[in-house]
Each structure stands twice: as C-alpha cells, then as structure tokens.
C-alpha cells in the first residue's frame, strides 16, 4: 500500500496506480484507461492478496468447527466485520450484516422490516435519482402491502428538490429510502439534513451507500440513518459481498429473511429458535473470502486516507468537467453543486453506445446506457448517456488523453 507523493497542486497518482495490476494491461493494443469505476472498481493487490491467502492457507467454514483451520477462518472473517464496523462507525459488530451487496441489503430491509409493518394507505418515499435496486424492492413491497410509493423530484441540475421534501414527509410516510451519491450524475445528497427531518417525524430511513463508500468518509452515527447499504465491488473490494448496517434495536426486532444454517439456535420439527445478531441474518455458508477481501479494501482506503482520495478525485472532477465542455456539442447531464467524480454526458447527434464502442478501440472504458436509473435518465428527456466515472487511480493525463479521442469520435459520427 503506497503513500502518495504530491506534484504541484495535485496528486501524482503513480504510486496508487501501481497497486492495481489490471491497470497494466492493454486493450486493442492501447494502454487501458479505466473510466468505469461506478460500475465496478478495480482491485488493489491488498485485496487480491488477502483473498488468495485465505484460500491457500485458511480455507475452512466459519463458526462451525473446532479444528484449527475453522478457528483461523472464523477469526479472519470476524476481524473483517470489526474493521468494517469501525470503517462506517457503527456502534457494534451486531449492527453489521454481511450480504451479497447493496441490492440484497435493500431487499432485506424491504421484506424483513417494511413488509410486516406497512399497511394500506402508508407511504414509502424515494427519489427520482434512485438506482433500480432502490426502486424495485419498494415497488414489490408496496404491491404486497397496499402501501403507496411517493417520489422526490430532481431539479434540472441533478439535485433533489429540497423544497418538496418537507411536504412529502407526511404522517403517512413510514420509510424514506434514498441514495447517498447518485451513480448516474454524481450528486451527493444532503443526507444528514434529510435524515434529521425524517427522524423528527419518526420516519425510518435507509440510505443506499453503494456509490458513497469509494468517495467519502461515511459515519452512520453522524448521518443519523437507521439503515445503510454497502456494495463491496464499488469500494475496491470483491464482487458478491457487501453489508447492511442497521440500528441494533431495529435489527433485533426484525424476523429473519433467509432460513437455514447459522441463523438458528435450535431446530425441531415443532419450532425453530433464531440466533442472535448478526448471525440471525446470515443464513448458510457466507462468502468468507469476499468478507475478508472487503475488510482488506476498507483497510486499503484507510491507509491512503479518505480525505486525500476525496481531494484527488475532486481535482479530477473539476479538470474533467472543464475539459469536456471544450468538446463541441457536448452537454453534461447533472451539474449539482456537490458531486462525486461521476460525469454523465451526451453529444449532439451521437448515440452513447456508438461513442462507447469507438473510444474503446483507443483503450478507454466508459459506461453507456441508462446506468440502472431509467426514471432519472427519462427525467432529462434522454434514452441514454455516456458516463465517465473516476476513481482514486485515475489521472489528469488520462483525462487530457481522452478529450482528443472524444473529438475524433464525434467527427466520425456526426
């Protein structure tokens, strides 16, 4: 894990980049420039090594064996939970549930917390900028319970319509589910303010933190949310692993969602009694290597410094924004005052999919489409956008190299 030297007014990222083996490869004979971290980030050696070491030396099931390997595997698994508990400043390890990612975390809350409580006439409040993973589970639970889904509008600049929020938080609102950072337009929502407003009205809050974790220092106690979902692969960890933070009192009162091994205390054909937190929500053999890798990702981010990462990415965002605006016919979609390093854009007369295909031949990996935010893209009157999402390993030089490639692609397509 490399300390980062400074070069003039911004970071020289070469030391950080050296930690990511995938960035050394070529695409179509050109050096890879990876601008798709919002879809999935690359993995540093620290994460790859932690997972490889587990499989090579400690591979055994956790919590269920008295032999040495099982004990060692259990220690590594629970050490990862402890590290992640501290990383998000949860009150205890009992509040950190390992899941497959943010999608499963949100579904868990929708089905185990919301479904037993919601009644016809109740309301669930989300926003126009939500990822499909924070829309569809709430649509499903509303269909199951007769509750109503309400939507916070988004302004033309990509910010939430904050004037509408107090009117939408009514006595009928039981749950507010909101993205912390938009994966499509990069908006950083004022989650502390919104959670405070909800708490004053006794409304339960869930935040989708998938895109916040790689960019920001997240403190769930300071934010004041009831639930917070995390996806490992967005924060430089493995795929298929994430976590759900929940306030202990809420988790304790919730029924299990999945049944099976580990989440039980006793089983008879007449009755099953359930295990304590967090095991109550972790049925079956967990993704042990994934959890260890996620813990290693958190340690890696801490070693670099979340403030240093945020400063570097803000510099990249400002530089990329100014340079993109020099491309004729290009329009940035969503220019909120507070943004993470995610930029969606369109070019007049150019379909984003064609653009993405052409720049790929020069080694640039960007995302094109609706980014699993179809209602948001539709709100801007578009079928799709191109998106460049920048991570800690990206550089000003990569951005500068991208602009002439964009101009060349535009000349070919218009």
Secondary-structure blueprint:
Blueprint: E1 6-7, E2 10-11, H1 14-17, E3 26-27, E4 30-31, E5 33-34, H2 45-58, H3 68-88, E6 96-99, H4 102-117, E7 123-127, H5 136-145, E8 148-152, H6 165-168, E9 173-179, H7 191-200, E10 204-208, H8 220-223, E11 227-231, E12 242-246, H9 248-253, E13 264-267, E14 272-274, H10 288-304, H11 306-324, E15 330-333, E16 342-347, H12 352-360, E17 364-365, E18 367-369, H13 374-379, E19 385-389, H14 396-413
Parallel strand pairs: 5-17, 7-8, 7-9, 9-10, 10-11
Antiparallel strand pairs: 1-2, 3-4, 6-12, 11-12, 13-14, 15-16, 16-19, 18-19
Helix pairs in contact: 2-10, 3-10, 4-5, 11-14, 12-14
Structure summary:
The chain has helices at residues 14-17, 45-58, 68-88, 102-117, 136-145, 165-168, 191-200, 220-223, 248-253, 288-304, 306-324, 352-360, 374-379, 396-413, and strands at residues 6-7, 10-11, 26-27, 30-31, 33-34, 96-99, 123-127, 148-152, 173-179, 204-208, 227-231, 242-246, 264-267, 272-274, 330-333, 342-347, 364-365, 367-369, 385-389. It is an alpha/beta fold and 414 residues long.
């Amino acid at each position: 894990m490399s300390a980062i030297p400074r070069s003039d007014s911004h970071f020289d990222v070469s030391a950080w980049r050296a930690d990511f083996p995938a960035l050394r490869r070529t695409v179509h004979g050109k050096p890879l420039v990876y601008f798709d971290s919002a879809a999935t980030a690359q993995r540093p050696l620290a994460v790859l090594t932690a997972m490889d070491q587990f499989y090579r030396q400690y591979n055994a099931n956790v919590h269920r064996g008295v032999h040495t390997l099982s004990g060692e595997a259990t220690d590594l698994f629970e050490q990862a939970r402890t590290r992640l508990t501290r990383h998000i400043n949860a009150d205890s390890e009992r509040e950190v549930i390992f899941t497959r990612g943010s999608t499963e975390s949100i579904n868990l809350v929708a089905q185990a917390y919301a479904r037993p409580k919601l009644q016809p006439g109740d309301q669930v409040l989300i926003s126009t900028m939500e990822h499909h993973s924070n829309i569809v589970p709430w649509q499903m639970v509303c269909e199951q319970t007769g509750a109503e889904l309400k939507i916070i509008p988004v302004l033309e600049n990509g910010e939430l319509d904050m004037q509408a929020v107090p009117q939408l938080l009514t006595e009928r609102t039981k749950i507010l589910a909101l993205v912390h950072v938009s994966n499509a337009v990069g908006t950083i929502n004022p989650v502390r303010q919104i959670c405070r407003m909800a708490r004053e009205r006794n409304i339960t809050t869930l935040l989708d933190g998938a895109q916040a974790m790689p960019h920001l220092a997240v403190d769930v106690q300071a934010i004041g949310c009831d639930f917070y979902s995390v996806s490992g692969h967005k924060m430089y960890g493995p795929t298929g692993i994430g976590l759900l933070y929940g306030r202990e009192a809420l988790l304790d009162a919730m029924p299990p969602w999945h049944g099976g091994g580990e989440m039980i205390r006793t089983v008879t054909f007449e009755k099953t009694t359930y295990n304590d937190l967090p095991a109550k929500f972790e049925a079956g053999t967990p993704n042990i290597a994934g959890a260890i890798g996620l813990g290693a990702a958190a340690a890696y981010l801490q070693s670099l410094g979340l403030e240093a990462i945020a400063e570097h990415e803000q510099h990249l965002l400002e530089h990329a924004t100014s340079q993109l605006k020099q491309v004729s016919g290009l329009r940035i979609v969503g220019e909120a005052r507070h943004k993470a390093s995610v930029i969606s854009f369109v070019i007049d007369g150019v379909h984003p999919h064609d653009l993405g295909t052409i720049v790929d031949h020069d080694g640039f990996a960007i995302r094109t489409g609706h980014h699993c935010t179809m209602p948001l893209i539709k709100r801007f009157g578009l079928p799709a956008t191109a998106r460049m999402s920048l991570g800690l390993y990206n550089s000003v030089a990569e951005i500068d190299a991208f602009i002439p490639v964009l101009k060349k692609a535009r000349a070919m397509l218009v």
